[in-house]
Each structure stands twice: as structure tokens, then as C-alpha cells.
Design goal:
With 550 residues, this protein is of the alpha/beta class. 31% of the residues lie in helices and 16% in strands. The strands form four sheets. Strands 1, 2, 3, 4, 5, 6, 7 and 8 form an eight-stranded mixed sheet that branches. The N and C termini lie far apart (73 Å).
Length: 550
């Protein structure tokens, strides 16, 4: 007779072994022994490492396990942020990895893949990975981080909730083990974010969990080229389509856009017409636009270090709890970015002649994060907006679609890049490195971040290529070459065809949009340095130490 409760029986045995070592509020000095008691070889282990919040104490403890006792773990990580996230492979404790983003560890990850120390299952978008937690990658053990716990084991995650709800729910309701590191044990929590019944062990960590200010950009480092690109973005795309619901990727390019909203966009009369609603971390660069009345609402994937008091003072803008702290949620922000936003604009490392882009290059596997969801046309969307309908209409006109067919909209997906990256590496290539990365890592398909058929615009310092208006693959290729500048891809353009595309408004130079390049100076930035951002916030923003240079 088939037994239907094997998982729950196994869970009870693991819990009993753990409780034989320490109580439910665990002794931090016994954390390695606890992990060895509840983790079994071959387990799927989700170690919480988000864009901001890191379960760093538990990560270090995991690396201290005896590989003779615990090995061949299948690690599930949103972000490879800490050295420990890869040390666990170097030490022979883990062998397989499914993840989303690896920015800080991208070079080391590529090296470990090349030497065969890591077997990558897939490089996911965040939402894809969270979805698989509930299907075929359900964690057997989840190691998470929270700000505080009470003595019953209820958790308070504070502003950096991030991935925690998705991880805990998938694990707890499939008879897995949930272990949380917390900064403190208190008698009464400001609010309960995760109920005690979903948590098995709580360990007070010796030091507060690490938080990375990933989205903070110092305005002092924004160049005049980036200001010019921001002006073209606002006038040539934001204003052209009337984009009100937006997601910005990470970087100085998008920070420049945020910082010229109260100056350049204001001068164009665009307040109340663009950038009203955002799926976005609380970028400090957004403070001047919020103060100027451009921004009405922001739902966040995670928080941003130093923004706590500012967020608490602006509850009409952010999603703030009764305790005054923001409630972030990466899974729900991903859903919002995918279905509720009209535009995604972000950068990449390489773009090919079809408009495919990737951040997985030879020697550097950065992963994708949320970009594939943000940067794709949500074909399940049904609610209309002006920007979505206009983009869809432009796309249909070029395909000579039968007018009797059902019309549909399209999401705006913009790749904003300078033609040359750091060390003068061209951003435009004939073939993505992703093909060679796939071969090296034994992946079934090349790790493309955003597929070319989802990209609607490419923006460089040379201008904008509106791919929606291209009628053929040849036009699309020449439009991309036409904004690729002095890269080998750009130099191989058909000059006559590029000029024809410009005449038709498919390629737009700054002057075609009525933009005077002489105006593209840092004087347009509403804040020119970190101290200006503090002033704009009324003293509420407290930049992390690394950004305080006064």
C-alpha cells in the first residue's frame, strides 16, 4: 500500500534531530550542528540572498558543514552576492545551482563553471525561479533572514521583505524546514510578516544581516553623455507614448532619467503625463521627482539602505505598514512590472543584430534578475493604456496585419546603452557570447536576457532606433547598426539605408527630436551629488557611509 506522508514523516525526524541539539530559538554557537542535523545530502536548499538582504550568518554556517556528512546539495539562490554563495561549491558541499542574478560574483561563477565545479540547472528570471519553488524546485530546507522575531517564532521582515514570502510559503507548505536568522529577539513585533507556524528554528545572529544598497547611484558620477541619453529617452519615448507606468533597471543611465524629470521633463510640460506610477526600489535618485510631484506611487522589490526615514515620511507614495516601515515584495513587484507597467528601460552588456541582449558573456556570467519579465511583452495582458495601445498599433501597421484581426497592445521594452562599455568593449556584436557560454556551461539554449522580438527601442548616445516601425529583418538590422556608433557593428552599416530609416523616423538623432546637445550638461540634474539628495529629502535620506564624501 502506497504511503502518502513520507515528506511529513521525514520532516518530523529532521525536526527531532534539530531539537536534540538546540531549542526552537537556536543557540548561534550550535548553528553548524543544527544544519548538519536537519540537512541531508542531495537536498534542495534555498539560501536567501536577495538584491539587498543576505542571510549571511546562515551562509557562513552552511560553508562550515562537513562535506563527508552533507554533500551534493542543490542550491537555489535569487542572487549570488556573497563569496560564501560560491564557497559552498568550492568546498564540495553543493554541486548544482539554479539562480537568477550573480552580479557581484559573476566573474568567479564563470570560472567555476569553466572548471566544472558547478552544474547550472538554469539561469532564471526572479519570477520564474519563484514559480518553480511551487512546482519542481520546492526547497527541502529554506535558510532565510528577518529583522526580528518574537519568542513564539513570528517574524518581522521590515522594509526588506523581498523574496521571503515566496521562499517560506513554498517550503513550509510542502513539509520542508524553515530556519531564520534574525537581528534580534523581542517581546512584541511591530507587525507579523511571517507567522510562527511557518518557521521551525530561529537563530539570533551575532551581527545584523548584510544589506546591499544595490540601486544607489552617486549623481556626481553621471556623465553628460548619460544626460543626453536621458533627454532623448524622455522626449523621444516617454513623452511620445505618454508612459505613466514604468520600471527602471539598475544603472547611471536610468538614474540620469530620474534626476532630469523635475528639470527637463518639467520644462516640456510633462508633469502628470509621464512617470506617475512605478515598480521600483526606492532609488535615492527618485527623491527630487517625488518632491516635485511627478511620482504618485512606488511599489518596491526591496528597500534601499538609508531611505527608511524618507519612506516613512511619504506613506502616500510608498507601500507602508502601520508600523511606518515599507513592505516590499519581490514576487508581487515582478508581477506588477510584467503586467501593470507599460515600459521597461534598462541596460545590458551585449546586443546582437536581431536585438537580442545578454549579460552572460565569456568570463562574466551576471545572470538576469528581473529583466526578462520586465523586458518582455506580457501576452496575457488584457487591460488597455495609451502607451500600450500605441506601441501595439505601430507594430501591427508594419506587419500588414488584416484589419479584421483582433487588435492588441504591446509593452515598450527599451535597451539603453552607450555604444562602448568599460575597457572599450563594444556593446553591439555580430554574435552574442551567450552562444559560447551555453556550450561551456552545457546549457540547452543560449542565456539570452531579453529576446530581440520583445525589444521595441534601442537608445544610445547616437540616437533611438524604433524597432516597432521596421518592416523587414533587414530594416531592423540596419536600424540597430544605425545607432551602434563607431563599433564594428555600427561601422558596417549601409549608410544609404540608414539615412532612409532616419527619413522615415525609425532612427531618431537628438536633433531630429529638437534636442540641443549643448543643453545636455550636468546642470540639468536636479541633484548633482549625494549631499544634494539629502537636501532634497529634507534631511530624511541617510546615505550609507560609502556614499558620504562630505
Amino acid at each position: 500500500m502506497k504511503q502518502w506522508n513520507l515528506l511529513s514523516e521525514n520532516r518530523e525526524k529532521r525536526i527531532a534531530r534539530g531539537l536534540a541539539i538546540t531549542g526552537r530559538i537556536a543557540d548561534p554557537g550550535k548553528i553548524v550542528a543544527l544544519l548538519e542535523a536537519v540537512i541531508e545530502s542531495g537536498d534542495r536548499v534555498c539560501l536567501e540572498g536577495n538584491n539587498q538582504k543576505q542571510a549571511d550568518f546562515l551562509a557562513g554556517a552552511l560553508c562550515s558543514l562537513d562535506p563527508a556528512r552533507v554533500h551534493d546539495l542543490h542550491m537555489l539562490l535569487s542572487v549570488l552576492a556573497l563569496p560564501e554563495h560560491l564557497d559552498v561549491f568550492d568546498k564540495g558541499i553543493a554541486s548544482r545551482l539554479d539562480f537568477s542574478f550573480s552580479g557581484p560574483q559573476a566573474v568567479r561563477l564563470a570560472r567555476l563553471v569553466a572548471t566544472g565545479k558547478i552544474n547550472i540547472g538554469a539561469i532564471h528570471t526572479y519570477l520564474e525561479l519563484f514559480g518553480r519553488y511551487f512546482i519542481d524546485l520546492t526547497p527541502r530546507v529554506a535558510l532565510i533572514a528577518a529583522q526580528a522575531a518574537d519568542r513564539q517564532g513570528n517574524l518581522y521582515t521590515g522594509p526588506n521583505t523581498e523574496d521571503t514570502p515566496a521562499i517560506v510559503e513554498a517550503t513550509a507548505f510542502k513539509n520542508g524546514i524553515v530556519i531564520a536568522q534574525v537581528n534580534e529577539i523581542v517581546d512584541v513585533l511591530p507587525r507579523v510578516d511571517v507567522p510562527a507556524g511557518w518557521v521551525d528554528f530561529v537563530v539570533p545572529a551575532p551581527t545584523p544581516h548584510y544589506i546591499e544598497p544595490l540601486f544607489t547611484r552617486d549623481p556626481a558620477l553621471i556623465s553628460e553623455v548619460q544626460v543626453l541619453m536621458a533627454m532623448m529617452a524622455i522626449k523621444g519615448i516617454y513623452a511620445e507614448y505618454g508612459v505613466e507606468r514604468i520600471n527602471h533597471g539598475i544603472g547611471f543611465d536610468t538614474a540620469a532619467i530620474e534626476l532630469i524629470l523635475p528639470t527637463y521633463a518639467e520644462s516640456l510640460g510633462l508633469k502628470g503625463k509621464i512617470g506617475r506610477h512605478w515598480a521600483l526600489n526606492p532609488h535615492p535618485a527618485l527623491i527630487p521627482a517625488i518632491e516635485a510631484g511627478f511620482v504618485e506611487s512606488v511599489h518596491s522589490f526591496g528597500s534601499e539602505l538609508g531611505m527608511e526615514r524618507y519612506i516613512e515620511a511619504r506613506p502616500d507614495v510608498f507601500f507602508v505598514g502601520r508600523d511606518g516601515s515599507m513592505r516590499s515584495n519581490r514576487a508581487m513587484s515582478q508581477v506588477a512590472g510584467h503586467y501593470a507597467c507599460d515600459m521597461f528601460i534598462g541596460s545590458t552588456l551585449q546586443i546582437d543584430l536581431q536585438g537580442n541582449s545578454s549579460t552572460a558573456t565569456l568570463g562574466r556570467i551576471s545572470g538576469f534578475g528581473g529583466a526578462p519579465n520586465m523586458g518582455s511583452d506580457a501576452r496575457g495582458r488584457r487591460h488597455p493604456s495609451a502607451a500600450w495601445l500605441k506601441a501595439g498599433e505601430q507594430a501591427r501597421q508594419q506587419t500588414n496585419q488584416d484589419k479584421k484581426k483582433i487588435p492588441r497592445g504591446q509593452k515598450l521594452v527599451v535597451q539603453i546603452v552607450e555604444t562602448f562599455r568599460e575597457h572599450m568593449q563594444p556593446a553591439f556584436v555580430e554574435e552574442l557570447d551567450a552562444w559560447k557560454v551555453a556550450e561551456q556551461a552545457k546549457l540547452a539554449i543560449p542565456p539570452v536576457m531579453i529576446y530581440g522580438d520583445d525589444v521595441t527601442h534601442i537608445l544610445t548616445e547616437e540616437g533611438i532606433a524604433n524597432l516597432l516601425l521596421c518592416r523587414t529583418e533587414e530594416e531592423r538590422e540596419q536600424a540597430i547598426r544605425g545607432v551602434a556608433g563607431y563599433t564594428p557593428v555600427g561601422m558596417a552599416r549601409d549608410k544609404k539605408m540608414v539615412e532612409n530609416l532616419r527619413d522615415r523616423g525609425i532612427i531618431l538623432r537628438a536633433e531630429d527630436m529638437g534636442i540641443d546637445k549643448r543643453m545636455a550638461t550636468r546642470d540639468l540634474l536636479a541633484a548633482k551629488n549625494m549631499k544634494d539628495l539629502v537636501r532634497a529629502s529634507g534631511g530624511l535620506y541617510a546615505p550609507p557611509k560609502r556614499f558620504r564624501n562630505w
